[in-house]
Amino acid sequence: MEMVQQLYITLFFTLFLLPSLVVGECSCDTGDEERDKDQALKYKLVAISSILVAGALGVCIPMLGKTIPALRPEKNIFFIIKAFAAGVILSTGFIHVLPDAFKNLTSPCLAENPWGEFPFTGFVAMVSAIGTLMVDAFATSYYSKSHFHNAPRGTGALEEKVGEHDQEDHMPVHTHATHGHAHGPVASLARNSGSSELFRSRVISQVLELGIVVHSVIIGISLGASESPKTIRPLVAALTFHQFFEGMGLGGCISQANFRSRAIAIMVVFYSLTTPVGIAIGIGISNVYNENSSSALIVEGILNAASAGILIYMALVDLLAADFMSSRMQSSFKLQIESNVSLLLGAGCMSLLAKWA
Questions:
Q1: Does 340 have pLDDT greater than 90?
Q2: How far is Cα 89 from Cα 102, in angstroms, rounded to an integer?
Q3: Are 271 and 244 in contact (CB under 8 A)?
């Protein structure tokens, strides 16, 4: 649970540090846009409620497998839903978040040196993806080594023991065909492998939530700080669908991680609240917030680029590659076709939302 605590400390730090870095500085003009503070506030309140409900609903649907047999991880429909959600997350990284980062860090409001002379957006996204890989690999490796180190004696020397007892025509491992289980080193090895996979699923779900939450806060603050109903109106519907689909991807990972009920509740509530809280923060700082100030552009651009790197890595490596290269998927041509179609639909639907978001 120590990793979970560190994750949420980081997220809270991001939530409360960002507003202090992007206020109080003026530079480029925001341009002429229709402003109506009262009307804009009504749209913002609608956005808070609709995004909150959509996010909670989306993240909870994949976890209904405990009550709805068709949504259990061993069923084909779960693979199809997860492929759709992975397409949503991949599209979010490439179509929504990364272009925003490029726009922020290449803005004419920033000094030419160094922001115009080096591709910071791609660099930050690359470093973020590599950092995610390192966290993924080191955390899983550390857990596996510590777990195997504490495993019962005999597990590590399985081959020698099997060889020795083969000569004596006796095995320390016996199976029961009627019961469908095994005893001895093989059973211990299977348990250790299962525990390692479970830990990896937990790392994936926590890192994925980190990447999603960072850009969700930024989106919320930007929407809350705007006073143009014309700008906010299309964003309400777009962000509602955005949070719903993205929540499905995160919910699928959380359901596979088999967290305790308390941890699941914390992750669901935290995901559901990030964008609405960001909107509330944006409303509070709308009088002093300037989205074209150099501080706002740099902070948002770097965080968006880092978030894009995390989301793209997680979608391609931990969600799509893990499922599409699994023996379950490779052994069923029908499931491959259905999952690929679902992937394209997810990516396509999320890409269409970019027109309004």
A1: yes
A2: 18
A3: no
